[in-house]
Design brief:
alpha/beta, 2 domains, 6 strands, six-stranded parallel sheet, about 15% strand
Length: about 210
């Protein structure tokens, strides 16, 4: 039996996944947590094979925090299950050590397939990524995404969501001037001159 845990902010998501896998012949849910701070104790107690985690989990404000969870729990594979776009966070999550990235917009059967793949020693990516990888537009966009560091991607996500520099600095525990520097880098790398154009460019590239 493949033991899994779920780390997610939304009770309805927890309920949906729990109902879907109830009485499953190969997968069982050992625990559910709603905050990053509860993950370590949960994994220590339950010894699960796979942790399904939302990249927007309460308390999870950076890719480095995700990487720390992975490094501290080498016997547990992480499967990112989120509404956040894979085009923006798939690559950085993979670099951090995650074993898969599946959109919440996909059917739960995709999540099931991802769990089974990871349990079999493989990695899991959504069908949408494989399909988009075949198009030249995706490949061109990927070249641009690779220019962004993990921290720049995080700052971009918060800027797109409407947060101001001081709010982002508190969330990421960085100096506000540092956030301003990241914003300038993003404008430069995405070839725009202001925040409105930055958001519009992100929408054009389908990263929001």
């Amino acid at each position: 039996m493949i033991k899994i845990s779920i780390a997610d902010n939304q009770p309805v998501v927890m309920h949906g996944i729990s109902c879907f896998f109830k009485n499953h012949s190969k997968i069982s849910i050992s625990d559910t947590v709603y905050h990053l701070k509860d993950i370590e104790e949960s994994l220590h107690q339950n010894k699960v094979k796979i942790l399904i985690i939302d990249i927007e989990l309460e308390g999870l404000h950076s890719i480095s925090a995700l990487k720390k969870v992975i490094q501290n729990n080498l016997d547990t594979k992480l499967l990112i299950y989120t509404c956040a776009t894979e085009k923006l966070f798939g690559l950085t999550s993979l670099k951090a050590g995650a074993a898969g990235f599946i959109s919440k917009k996909a059917p739960l059967e995709d999540l099931e397939a991802g769990i089974l793949k990871i349990a079999d020693g493989k990695t899991a990516f959504s069908d949408g990524v494989h399909k988009n990888a075949l198009t030249s537009s995706y490949l061109n966009n990927e070249r641009m995404y690779r220019k962004l560091s993990s921290r720049e991607s995080e700052v971009l996500r918060y800027l797109i969501s409407g947060k101001k520099n001081n709010e982002i600095s508190e969330l990421l525990n960085l100096n506000e001037k540092t956030i301003s520097t990241y914003k300038l880098r993003l404008l430069n790398k995405l070839h725009v001159t202001n925040l409105i154009d930055l958001v519009n460019k992100a929408k054009t590239l389908e990263i929001v």
